[in-house]
From TrEMBL:
Gene Ontology CC: Golgi apparatus
Organism the protein comes from: Mytilus galloprovincialis (Mediterranean mussel)
Keyword Kinase: no
Protein name in the entry: Dymeclin
Family: Belongs to the dymeclin family.
A Pfam family recorded for this sequence: Dymeclin
Keyword check for Kinase: no
Lineage top rank: taxon: Eukaryota
Keywords: Lipoprotein, Myristate
Alphabetical GO biological process terms: Golgi organization
Lineage, highest ranks first: Eukaryota, Metazoa, Spiralia, Lophotrochozoa, Mollusca
Length: 535
């Protein structure tokens, strides 16, 4: 019968369809009347690969992934990744002819585009009235980015299918760079304008998917990482990341992790750590805790990361998040320069908060031990004590790292941080409970050396001094302070290492973003890859 397809023809037809869609994305330019066509091609490919959401097997077991990774589609890998990056970078808004009725009877193109738009949205576009601003969303950029993330994060292990899309994303280079590559440099898969990509990242770094793209580029693409670190306007990239962390209560934990890991990777570079203290911010409209003027980007970064630690202490209680926060601060600590009074206060207040929590946990352990003694011989539930001991171990690890960060700053840059010395003198009593503690004793000795030196200098000027006069004495006394009086500790250097089996984290995360952000319908009842309650 005409039109009948044999079962064994379905596979080849599916590959033919996928390859045709990929060729469309690569070969057909994006203009107003092809915008919806590109969207439909991307949506269809996402649907064909979405089997991962509904089946627990590895992606390499699915025929559609074999077609896209190693079939005819893979021939176009470099050009496809380049096209997807181009769509993302362009941030082109949805053309008005897709959602506006036209009175031009001859406008066949607009009519076809509007019909295709209705099909693509399953007729849902007409169910509720949308404002023009909502239609102006950069739909093609969003869908292109989601598809790029799907392509580059599946089949990444050595035992899976070859992934040419990830290889392309990790090794493309700057089209504006005219230098000759070194013999040891990995061959470029394609060239792209890094400046355009950087500017687009800076302007759209609000959602999970843009943050994930930045993470992939800065972690996997050495050329792009070097380009980002060389920017004189690095504040344009860092500020959106800090804004994400500042509004942590409105973000999912995965998004917070990605933002922190990006900061950690950036903090591995000493030039970055110096540069952030040379960029002065005049106004930060989204920072509501206190009106800040004339604060360095580095100072704001410290405050926001400390704020994230405190938020985690009270809400999330996640050791992994603590570790990343403190590692980033530790990497930067030797270059802390001219810390703002508010930054100094927040840093020392964090230590004070941790000290209070330490006392509270110690009290709970003592109470639990006392209850155990009283309840001996009786049936009792005493399983909470091990949790308290675990809390204490984590807390002491955090306290030591905070002390190491303060010590690193003083050891390397005490002459350029009078506000930190001022705050230490003002709150010197908070360190007394840890002076004889074996975990902190060596670090406290350095702090005592500093406190003793400056206290002696201040005593020589009498007791009725204004805060301004105290600060002036500290600045003057710093000129004669010998840093060799402080015990030298190893430099704090932490490097981000991706967890084993990264697919276990990234694949559910990316498909949850497709589910929530692609404007497409998926049957929630059939999803097994991730929990909708936690995604």
């Amino acid at each position: 019968m005409d039109g009948y397809v044999e079962a064994d023809e379905v596979g080849p037809l599916t590959e033919e369809l996928m390859n045709s869609l990929v060729e469309l994305l690569v070969d057909v330019p994006v203009v107003n009347f092809t915008y919806a066509l590109h969207l439909e091609a991307l949506n269809t490919l996402l649907v064909l690969l979405s089997i991962q959401m509904f089946q627990p097997q590895s992606a390499s077991k699915f025929i559609t992934y074999k077609y896209i990774m190693e079939g005819r589609c893979s021939i176009h890998a470099c050009l496809l990744v380049k096209a997807l990056l181009r769509n993302y970078t362009a941030q082109q808004k949805c053309p008005p002819e897709l959602y506006k009725h036209t009175s031009d009877a001859n406008s066949m193109v607009a009519s076809v585009a509007a019909s295709l738009w209705s099909v693509m949205t399953l007729g849902m576009a007409n169910k509720t009235e949308k404002t023009e601003a909502e239609y102006h969303e950069t739909l093609l950029a969003n869908q292109s980015l989601l598809f790029l993330l799907v392509l580059s994060n599946h089949c990444t292990t050595e035992f899976s299918l070859n992934n040419p899309y990830r290889e392309a994303l990790c090794s493309f280079t700057n089209s504006q760079d005219q230098s000759t590559p070194s013999p040891t440099q990995v061959a470029a898969t394609f060239k792209f304008d890094f400046t355009d990509l950087y500017n687009s990242l800076c302007s759209s770094l609000r959602d999970d998917q843009s943050t994930l793209l930045l993470y992939l580029l800065i972690h996997q693409n050495a050329s792009m990482k070097a380009f980002i670190l060389s920017r004189t306007n690095i504040d344009q990239l860092v500020m959106p990341i800090l804004k994400i962390l500042y509004h942590a209560q409105d973000r999912n934990s995965h998004h917070i992790y990605m933002a922190l890991i990006i900061l950690l990777v950036l903090s591995e570079d000493e030039v970055f750590n110096k540069a952030v203290h040379e960029i002065i911010l005049r106004d930060i409209p989204w920072f509501k805790d206190r009106h800040l003027t004339e604060i360095s980007l580095g100072g704001l970064l410290i405050v926001v990361v400390i704020r994230t630690i405190q938020y985690n202490l009270t809400r999330m209680r996640d050791k992994y998040l603590h570790t990343n926060c403190l590692a980033a601060l530790a990497n930067m600590s030797a270059q802390f320069t001219d810390l703002h009074p508010y930054v100094s206060q927040r840093l020392i207040n964090l230590f004070a908060l941790l000290g209070k929590k330490h006392n509270k946990v110690i009290d709970m352990i003592r109470e639990a031990a006392l209850d155990d003694t009283e309840e001996q011989g009786k049936d009792s539930d005493v399983e909470s004590e091990p949790d308290h001991m675990q809390d204490l171990a984590v807390l002491e690890e955090v306290i030591r790292m905070v002390l190491e960060i303060v010590n690193s700053c003083l050891t390397n840059n005490i002459h350029h941080n009078p506000n930190l010395v001022y705050t230490l003198l003002y709150q010197k009593d908070i360190f007394s409970q840890f002076r004889t503690h074996p975990t902190f004793q060596d670090l406290i000795q350095n702090l005592d050396t500093v406190l003793c030196y400056y206290s002696t200098k201040l005593e020589q000027h009498g007791s009725n001094m204004s805060p301004k006069e105290v600060l002036e004495v500290i600045i003057e006394s710093s000129k004669t302070f010998r840093r060799d009086r402080l015990k030298k500790f190893p430099d704090l250097k932490f490097k981000y290492v991706e967890e084993d089996s990264p697919e276990e984290f990234f694949i559910p995360y990316i498909w949850s973003l497709v589910y929530h952000s692609s404007n497409m319908y998926f049957n929630a009842a059939r999803i097994v890859l991730f929990s909708l309650s936690s995604s």
